[in-house]
Amino acid sequence: MKKSTKSTLIIIATIVGAFVGGMIFLYILFPSALSKEATEKDFIKNYDHVKIVTDYFAGSKYNEMSIRHTGDGHTIFANADGYITINDVKVIDAISSLFENGYKVIAKSDNSVHFLRSSPTMDFGSGVVYSIDGSEPTLEILTKLEPLAEPNWYYYEQSYNEWRMPNGN
Fold first, then answer.
1. Where are the domains of the chain?
2. Are 93 and 53 a contacting pair, CB within 8 Å?
3. pLDDT digits 0-9 by tens, 23-48
4. Is there a contact between 139 and 114 (Cβ–Cβ < 8 Å)?
5. What are the backbone angles phi and psi of residue 81, rounded to the nearest 5°?
6. Exposed site from 1, 64, 84, 155, fewest CB < 10 Å?
7. Which residues does residue 77 pair with via DSSP β-bridges, in sequence order?
């Protein structure tokens, strides 16, 4: 093989390798959103833990409360009182398990408890949401809401960029 042909192959291999490496890096940095089907399958797999946490949040006196996977797993931010501590070990274990399985945020907002599962960018999120009172859940910047097989449960998507266009923002 000629030296120039060998050099050309090395250059092409380097470019292809850099491209593939870049694509893998972007996928790790910005993973794609989970589909409704994948989210529902994950919801069913984790249902026992989701139910424990939903019952705890829904039964709380607070209208707004949330916990993020970056926290300690037993401290919730509640709208009126700032940070409150969960004392129920069963709830703490359920929250920890959900975070270990990829959930990012669990929150209560008015009539709903939602579980953010996928958040590939800062402007988009999806997951499952439970309607506490049986009416349609209310979430900010909601762009998709589809019922799941389980009563009062929905798959949701929030997309700021998609939401802001028809809302004049």
1. 1-30, 33-164
2. no
3. 544 444 444 456 778 888 989 999 99
4. yes
5. -110, 10
6. 1
7. 66, 83
